Amino acid sequence: MNEREAYNVLNILHFGDIFNMNKLRGNFPSWTAAWHALGKKSKLDPETEWGKLEKHGVNLILAGEPDFPAFLNEIPNPPLAIYIKGAPLDEHPKIAIIGTRRATLNGRGIAKNFARNIAGSGITVVSGLALGIDAAAHEGALDAKGKTIAVLANGLDTVYPRQNAALAARILKSGGTLISEYSFGGETLPYRFLERNRIVSGLSSGVVVVEAPEGSGALATANCAVEQNREVFVVPGPLNNANYAGSHNLLRSGARLVARPEDVLDDLNMLADTDAAPLLRFPVENLSKEQKKILSALEGAGEPIGVDKIGELTKMDVSVISRNLTFLLIQSIVKEEGGRYQISK
Length: 345
Hints:
Elements: H1 3-13, H2 18-27, H3 31-38, H4 46-55, E1 58-62, H5 70-73, E2 81-86, E3 94-99, H6 105-120, E4 124-127, H7 133-143, E5 148-151, H8 165-173, E6 177-180, H9 190-202, E7 206-210, H10 217-227, E8 231-235, H11 245-252, E9 256-257, H12 261-267, H13 289-301, H14 307-314, H15 318-330, E10 334-337, E11 340-343
Parallel strand pairs: 3-4, 3-7, 4-5, 5-6, 7-8, 8-9
Antiparallel strand pairs: 1-2, 2-6, 10-11
């Protein structure tokens, strides 16, 4: 029995309880010593449990081992070990993209566009495989044929939520990685999402928040990032949209406002070389009916026009125009100068 096998079986025995596992680390000189002292009455067999990991293609890396992520060694309360499935972890730059599970179509489009361009610049996109913004971030990275890492709040013998099982399979097939600090059988419990969040931010140089309402778990991840001395970036949204209430509070607290993927890359000194692939725009065919009407009006005008003129041409309410212009500006589909708008070239 080696240290990895001992840690794994102890993690199962203690139901993945981080507090108890930390106590064991302080009370015993090694994980094997802890198992010899505590596992006598257990029916668990270290080698059998390890065989289950191998059968599913899952590896375990202990803190302190050479291939344990250096970034995770730096954070408060680092994981004692991580289970990984898929490609081995490397030290390439990583950026997390997070947000609400109940994302709007625009929010998902923004997350996907940011991820597509960040991954297309050679940066690994990290997220939590949740519905909404997380899923869109993973999908955007995959669309760019880039690398993405999903950090789960349960054991890697299952995928949660089930709706994203196919997405998890795509991540693995594309050369990405699934990560967890929980053993097989580890259930998805509410507090584990909070524990998971510190790993999402801890792996990353910066965290991009897209659509975070008040009380969103994305805000907890952003707080983890601050404690870990990571940069926090926020994509702003309409003032009357509840999905951005938490995002705007982050901005008031000092987070960086970003409108384009290159803003994030520039602030982190990760801008791609000039001969790299150009930044990708949100596909026009995926725009809403209102956004397409605005583009049609701008194209027909033949010159930069203001919101009032757009309203006159589209017969849409000013609040609807403003909301959709914000999205089009963030996606670099239109540009604004002196209160007048035109299609970006």
